[in-house]
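Tokens in:
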């Protein structure tokens, strides 16, 4: 790790930890639980990222629609491809309704995940999934807003856990619920409920 820039990293980590206390997280994959009240998330940083097709995602792309945000990176061996596969199954199962549920895959490795890299990687999954990248600081701002870990997991490094949640946003742009991607029944139920708003 480069020594330069540790100060900002520590600040971001503190912000992310604080935000993590505010956002209700599902602790077990199969836990149904009761939905918490929707939580506000600062979405402006999200709309400063570049999509895998070279354009920017704007508020008008998601206005009045529920949408899903998930974090990962293309060099991930397990969690990312599995979560993207599960999202692809979800969109396929929703049929035409899936067109009304934008899915935004935000890389946490912007140094390596260029728009072209994301485009190539996402060809293996549902074509409606949009890959997003940007500068390190831009991605850090989005990750902080969603209280997501910014450091990608390193192979063989103990103690690092990868984000495995899908952040379901409601049609008003509020975080309706974070759901573990392995909780397939809950994922489907939340998606259908939000689409019925």
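Residues out:
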């Amino acid at each position: 790790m480069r020594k330069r820039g540790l100060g900002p990293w520590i600040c971001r980590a503190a912000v992310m930890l604080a935000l993590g206390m505010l956002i209700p997280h599902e602790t077990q994959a199969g836990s149904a639980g009761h939905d918490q009240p929707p939580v506000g998330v600062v979405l402006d940083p999200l709309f400063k990222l570049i999509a895998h097709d070279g354009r920017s995602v704007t508020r008008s792309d998601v206005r009045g629609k529920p949408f899903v945000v998930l974090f990962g990176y293309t060099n991930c061996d397990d969690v990312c491809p599995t979560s993207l596969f599960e999202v692809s199954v979800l969109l396929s199962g929703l049929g035409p309704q899936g067109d009304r549920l934008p899915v935004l895959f935000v890389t946490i490795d912007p140094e390596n995940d260029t728009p072209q890299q994301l485009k190539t990687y996402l060809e293996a999954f549902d074509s409606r999934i949009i890959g997003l990248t940007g500068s390190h600081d831009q991605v850090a701002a989005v990750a902080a807003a969603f209280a997501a870990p910014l450091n990608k997991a390193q192979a063989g490094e103990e103690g690092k856990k990868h984000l495995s949640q899908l952040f379901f946003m409601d049609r008003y742009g509020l975080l309706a619920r974070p759901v573990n991607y392995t909780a397939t029944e809950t994922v489907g139920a939340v998606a259908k409920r939000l689409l019925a708003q």
